Every structure is written in C-alpha cells, then in structure tokens.
Fold each of these.
Amino acid sequence: MANATTIRPEEAAHFGKLAAGWWDPKGPSAMLHRLNPVRLGFIREAVDLHWHSDSHDRKPLAGKSALDVGCGAGLLCEPLARLGATVTGIDAAEENIAAASAHAAGGGLAIDYRHGDVGALGLAGFDLVTSMEVIEHVADKGAFVHALASALADDGLMVLSTPNRTAASRLLLVEGAERLGAIPRGTHHWEDFITPEELGALLAAAGLTMGEPRGITWSPMQRLHLSDDLSLNYIVTATRGPDAH
C-alpha cells in the first residue's frame, strides 16, 4: 500500500475476530447496535441542515455518495443506503468486509465494500464521509484525518464520532464497560482517545472546519442519547470553509 500508516495490524485483527457476531444485537457488538440510532439521528439532522433537505424525506441522500471509513460489518452503511445514498464502505479487517458484503447481499442492498487503508485507495469526491469510533484506533491520526478530507467533495459533509479522553471515559468506557463485558476486552486504549480540541486542530490542519460537538451519554431514563455532556463520547460534523454546521 502506498500509505498504510493509519492501520494498526493488531487493531484490525481484534475487530476482525468480532466479524461473525457483528450483526447480533446481543453479541459482542451489542453496544454498537445501541449507539447506531443515536448516531443516525445526529447524521440525519446534519444532512438536513447541510443540504437543506426536508426532515420528512425518507431518502434525503438520494443522488449522493457516502463513504463510511472503518465500516465494520456495515452497521452504518446499510441505513445510509436506505436513506438513498450510493454507499462505499472500507475497513482494515478482511473478515469484516466479508461479513458486511454477505449481510448487504442478504438484504438486497448494493454497497461497495473494500478492504484497505483509506489513504491508499485513492477515494475522492464523496458527498458524505463518516467514520464512527475509528480515529482512536489508527496509527497516525493526522494522516487519517487528511485521508478523510481527501475523500470528501468540496461541498461535502463529514461526520465523526469518538470517545473523549477524560477521567470519566477511563473509568466508564475502559475499566467499567470492558470489565463488565459490555465491550470486548482490548477494544479501547484510553491514551489513544482524542479530545474535541485536538480533533478540531487536526481537522483545521486538513482544511476543514469542525462544527459544535454533541455528547453521546447514558442515563437510566433516556439510555444512550445526544447531550451537551462531552465527557464520554462525542459526535461532530466537519466541512470545508467557514460555513460548517
């Protein structure tokens, strides 16, 4: 690969081992199944704001292309396709791409899945670029963000989510969730988490403007939901130029 610096082989191997159970809502990726509706709600709102689409439109991404980087077995790719997008998903683990392709075929969805490094595949011109819970797993965050920016169309929209590097995330996401079995052991390395300020600086270096981050948090009443509390996990948009949403 021309630029394989963003893939950590041990991370790809870890997630590749989870491929077979990725679509099981009670399996090792159960937390992602619970996270997905929250992410999709944010993405839908961002899409409507960015392209001034009708919030009641069932296919707001019709005629648009979407790229999901670090797609796993396709948990986000499939709903993006159902929202009308022509979807490409890429992942560092071949096992995930195989599982994603099989699941999409079973659902009659035409999604272009590819195995490899985003910086080496020469992708460009995507209207929407997403990458959920991925940047904390890459070897070179700056190179990764530049690769994402290179794949984005000039008037495109990017959406990223990632854990924040705080005392709360160390306690709850790493020590708590992994010890209790809510997340597979070895999934998170707290020192690799990135703060919103650090992410904003990386995006700026790649020519992008970061929007206002929203926290993803949990409460007994609301379960996982968007909030102003960024201490555990956050999701954010990025666009070129000063008109970021």
Amino acid sequence: MTLTSPPHMKWFVNSGNNISTPDGNNIEIWVLDYALDDVILSSWAKHFRTHYCLDEEIDFLREGYGYSRADYLNKIKFPDISISPGPSIRSGDFSEILVSDYLEYILGYWVPRTRYGSKVVRNESSKGCDTLAFKIVNPKKDTPEDTLAIFEAKAQFSISQKKANPRLQDAINDSIKDEIRRAESLNAIKQHLFDKKSFEESKRINRFQNPVDRPFKEISGAAALFSSHLFDSDLISQSSVEHHPNHKNLKLIVIHGENMMALVHELYRRAADEA
C-alpha cells in the first residue's frame, strides 16, 4: 500500500491465484477476509458514511425534517435496506467505494469521493463512469505518465442465488461505454469540488479534459465482486476483452468475501447508528 490506509484495508488480500482470459489478459483475484472487529468496522462505517454526507453537515441537513441523524441517513441519504431496488443499489455503491479504496490505498491514485453525496434519489445509481482516479507526476508540467484510470464495478452478493452471473464480463462491456461518458464524468467531479470550494483539487481535473492537446495515459478497469459462494473461476476465465477499445491498457480484478451482503448491511447500519 502506498498511502496511509484505513484499518479495513488490512482485510483486502491479494490471493496470488490470478486467472487469464482467452485473450491473454490477467485477472487479479482479491479476497476480502474481514472479521467481526467492532473497532475496525466502526472506522470503516465512518469512512463509508462520509461518501454520502460529511459528519459536520448532518445536523444542518436534518434540521428541517426533525429527524435524528440515523433517520436522516436511512430515509434521505442511504439506499433502502429492503425496498427494491435499494438492496442492489447498496451492493453497487459498496462495490464502487471498495474499488475506489483499492485504487487509492493500494495503487496510489488520487480518487475524489464526489459520486454519492450529490445523489438526488437514494434508490438510484449515480450516472456516469463508476470510479475515476488520477495520477499527476509533476504538478508543474504535463508528463506522458500522468494517468487517468476509469473503473467499472459489478456485484453479485445475494445469498439466495446459487449460480454465478458473468459479472466481470458485464463490467468489461460497461467499461466500453466510458469513452463516451468520460467528459461528462470529469466535469461532474470538477463542478462538485468547485461547489465544495476545493478549488485546487478542482483545477487538477483540467489536466485530463483535453487529451488531444494534452495527452496522458488512460487505464481502463473492470471489477467484479462476489460473495464467495458465487465465486466461479471457470466462468471468470471465459471473460473476453476482444471488443474493448483500450484492451491493451485494461486492468481486470475480482474481489470475493464471505456473506458480502450481510457485511454491506452491517456497514450501512453502523454508518447510521454511529453518526
């Protein structure tokens, strides 16, 4: 890990058992080997909560409703625990945030966390690219090694399902669309940072908005996340990158862990109850 990592990242373990696609692309297999540790789970829940709402903002935002902090988060900010499509939005948001943690704390990217706080409808996915991450080698001048990474994440956590779906292939296919969504997604991050008065961070996005005049390296990424009972290495190995326009710079990862949906719900519960 290249940066100071939150404690839950110690549960994020590279299995070392990589898989190859028919096209010869490498797929990293990671395991989320978490434990029922109250201290670490509470820290993780706080980290998770700040993606939706900073702690110093909650009291101001809840005031008009007359809600408690927990009620405000559960009724206004967080996807619903049971009403469809709330649970699937929860698993999707969790997966995107975990991939953001992977990019920031393991690969050393700068990852603006702007995607969830500006949601208008809590039971809908945010539009645009799932996760954008940045590396600027020298802030004073452009270099060819400045990098934009755009990752798509797909999850399958349901305890009731017994057969894996081709979620890595789904993520690869969705990643193809990022070339079209990139400009709008960059603008959304820049505007959100500007609105938060994070002016220096907002200006960093300029580096990646004009690839013709200011070329940079672009990494595409596809991530699939599973509960371990749905992890199917044979199905994963059939994933194809043949039609991906950036297949030479495409990173593939799979993350699995036991009872992932239970973990997701526990993080949302703690995030609300411990606010």
Amino acid sequence: MSDLRVERGGREVVRGLTFEVPRGSVVGLLGPSGCGKTTLMRSVVGVQIVAGGTVTVLGHPAGSRALRRRVGYATQNPALYADLSVRENLRYFASVLGAPRADPDRVIEEVGLGDARDQTAVSLSGGQLHRASLAVALLGAPELLVLDEPTVGLDPVLRVELWALFHELAAREVTLLISSHVMDEAARCERLLLMREGTLLADDTPEALRASTGTDDLEDAFLRLVQGQETVV
C-alpha cells in the first residue's frame, strides 16, 4: 500500500497511508472507533472508492477478479441469510466460491459453532453471528484474511481459541490483517499498525513499540504516541 487516501463528505478520512504486510504474518490494526480501520480494510479488499494512492494485494490491484477466491473478508456486520441455518448459509457461500463440499463442516468446527450448525441465522446470538461470518471468510483456501473486529462480543475462552486458530493459519502461510479496538489483543499479533484519525501512529512489533515508548504496557505505549511523547513510524 502506498500513499492511500480516502475521502468522505469532502473530508480526508485516510491520509497518505503507506505500509507492507509480510506473507504469513498476523498483523493487528488497532485504534479507537472512527480512526479509519474499517475504511482501510475495505480499501484492501477493493470495495472502497479511494481518492489516491495504490493498494496491491497478492501482486494484483485490490479488488481484481484474480483475487476473488484468494481473499477472505469478515465485516463487522455479519451478512447471512436470516432464514437459513448456519450450515445452509455456509453451503450456499461455498457453492458460490467453488469451495470443497466438505468445507462448511470444517469451518463450522474451526469457529466453534458445532452445536449451532442447524440454527437459523436469525436465532443466533451476536457472538455466534460473528463466528458464522468468520466461518464464511474461511471457506476455500484464502491466502489473505481481512477480519474486521472478529472477536467482538465473544467470551474470553473463545477469543483465546480463535487467536490460536489465527496463528495456526499463519503457520500455513495465510496472511491475516485483523482489526480491533481492544488493546489487550495487540500482544497476540506479530506486528501492529496503530491508527488515529486516519494516520499511522506506529508500524512495528509489540516488543519494539514497548521498547521505543519505555513502557511494558501496549495501551500505555499507544497513549504515549497519541500524546506526542514518542513518534514511531
């Protein structure tokens, strides 16, 4: 990504972002609500109109037809058919993607929805809906997963299980870009992109951010960057 700029209502909401994400890494995109995380992720997936700059994904311009089966995307607002069961939703999306027939059952187990596979989407809890949306993103064999707040509303045990899954996927050379506004998830990432008001405050490893800001707490590191005590880009 080079000098990405996005405008909304005549206002620049993403301002000249430039960074690269190494293949097979777990990268956290962190910052307060409204800082531009979702807009940035939409730009990576190729569904966001941009005002300037370039976004290249797996060697192709973002949104290219060649990327259709290579990128998985889970939004903050799960997009499922309310009157279909979890399994029926996944079977439908698997057929659209041309994913293996066994994939729906595989991803249901990976996200911990085995007991809810026959429930309709409308009857799921908020946390279950987010897991079902994540399951859709995992169908097939995506090389890049773009996950917008995938652990919101989940209990601590399931969050730990999902992060273990994310690292297992990275070990298979899948690249993950995961947004969150919860700073305690930052330590689970191999690299962090810290955002505020459409700009990058930092692009580094958790260890390097702690060292550069002189604190052992990543939330404190973020606050120090916000307050201008440190500048790390």
